[in-house]
Design goal:
Elements (H helix, E strand, L loop, with lengths): L3 H4 L5 E12 L7 E13 L4 E5 L6 H8 L7 E6 L2 E2 H4 L6 H4 L2 E4 L13 H11 L8 H11 L5 H4 L9 H13 L5 E5 L7 H18 L2 E6 L2 H7 L2 E6 L2 E7 H6 L4 H8 L37 H5 L4 E4 L2 E4 L15 H8 L2
Parallel strand pairs: 3-8, 3-9, 6-7, 7-8
Antiparallel strand pairs: 1-2, 1-4, 4-5, 9-10, 10-12, 11-12
The structure holds adenosine-5'-triphosphate and magnesium ion.
């Protein structure tokens, strides 16, 4: 059968069944295992922004660290343009891989070297990845500053991090990531340490880059309002597992999973971008061995929720892991399949 789904180009990034368990505790504490990710699967297409949303500790940064090759998953595959990265890449990512997958971190103060000027931060990746020669490196660095809106670029290029505001530093960090002309940009809470007043500017910049450069993005955030603004699709992570996945507008307009609903309610006003959002308070005693991991916090928990871990079900063009919705005919599927197939037909 030749469906629209099959005829689509291969996704830029395909993550299949990532699982990761950490052993925590130290010399004096009893060692404990922390399941950071359970069977996480998703895709990111070229020019698409996907937001990974969830409360603190849900596993968002673990996904980013695995994608950056800073951490090895216990299970799962990462396909970049259909190439199995875990099979071919060393744990420390190679130069070609880093030329394709770049990161913008949360802390614009910590991510730049205070002893070097902006020129140094941009020239280094440009030369290292052979995106410039010693002749045109200055010109290319200045171009990058134009791209991220740091004007006058000829002046900003000589500034050092301490001469820049938080928002300006984050723009330099974005310019540095763009220097290698990556295919995928991972941004882990890129605005959460910035003044509320300038968060929107950075999100606008990222949105423009996505459109103009057809840059794929994985935006990590606990803020569904930012996710809705920037992302085409949202993945909601709870306790290391995707509990709802689908188009951003649909998820924000009518969240299906009670956890997504709780996340949305924790944002005072979803229309007010940059507003502080609270995490849903985690309760350390809420571990249930069987059943749905969200059941202890779920206002709608039914008998079955305590006994049976729900499979993914299709709700509109979303996949939702919750007993509130009827099971699909085909049984348990991946978090993403339904949403992608339907989106492909649009
Ligand atoms: N190196 C590590 N050793 C032990 N436990 C870890 C390690 N890294 C992450 N964890 C645990 O894995 C879980 C997921 O962590 P992760 O940092 O991915 O969450 P997060 O969603 O990014 O949270 P936040 O919003 O606070 O940044 C947490 O319980 C965390 O304590
Ligand atoms: Mg994190």
């Amino acid at each position: 059968m030749s469906s629209a789904h099959e005829s689509r180009e291969t996704p830029l990034l395909k993550v299949e069944g990532l699982s990761k368990t950490f052993l925590s505790g130290g010399l004096f504490a009893r060692p404990q295992t922390v399941v950071a990710l359970r069977d996480v699967s998703f895709t990111v297409d070229r020019g698409e922004a996907v937001a990974l949303v969830g409360e603190s500790g849900s596993g968002k940064s673990t996904v980013a660290r695995i994608l950056l090759r800073l951490e090895r998953p216990d299970e799962g595959r990462i396909l970049l343009d259909a190439e199995d990265i875990l099979a071919t890449e060393p744990l420390r990512a190679s130069l070609p891989y880093r030329g394709r997958v770049q990161m913008v971190f949360q802390d614009p103060f910590g991510s730049l070297n205070r002893t070097h000027d902006v020129n140094h931060h941009l020239a280094r990746p440009l030369l290292r990845h052979k995106r410039a020669t010693s002749k045109d490196v200055r010109e290319k660095a200045i171009d990058l500053l134009h791209v991220v809106g740091l004007e006058p670029a000829e002046e900003f290029i000589w500034r050092r991090p301490y001469e820049l505001s938080g928002g300006q530093r984050q723009r330099v960090a974005i310019a540095r990531a763009l220097a290698v002309d990556p295919d995928l940009l991972i941004a882990d809470e890129p605005t959460s340490m910035l003044d509320v007043s300038i968060r929107m500017n950075i999100l606008t910049l990222l949105a423009r880059l996505k459109e103009e450069r057809r840059l794929a993005m994985l935006l990590i955030t606990h803020d569904l309002a930012s996710a809705r603004y920037l992302a085409d699709r949202v993945l909601v992570l709870f306790r290391g597992r995707i509990v709802e996945a689908g188009p951003a507008d649909e998820i924000v307009a009518s969240p299906a999973h009670p956890y997504t609903q709780a996340l949305l309610e924790s944002i005072a006003d979803v229309g007010k971008l940059g507003a502080e959002s609270r995490d849903v308070e985690p309760d350390p005693d809420e571990l249930s061995s069987d059943g749905c991991p969200f059941a202890p916090r779920c206002p709608e928990a039914m008998d079955v929720c305590w006994k049976v871990d729900p499979s993914y079900r299709t709700v509109d063009s979303r996949r939702v892991r919750c007993h509130l919705y009827p099971e699909d005919g085909g049984g348990a599927g991946e978090a993403e399949t339904g949403a992608r197939t339907q989106a492909a037909g649009q």
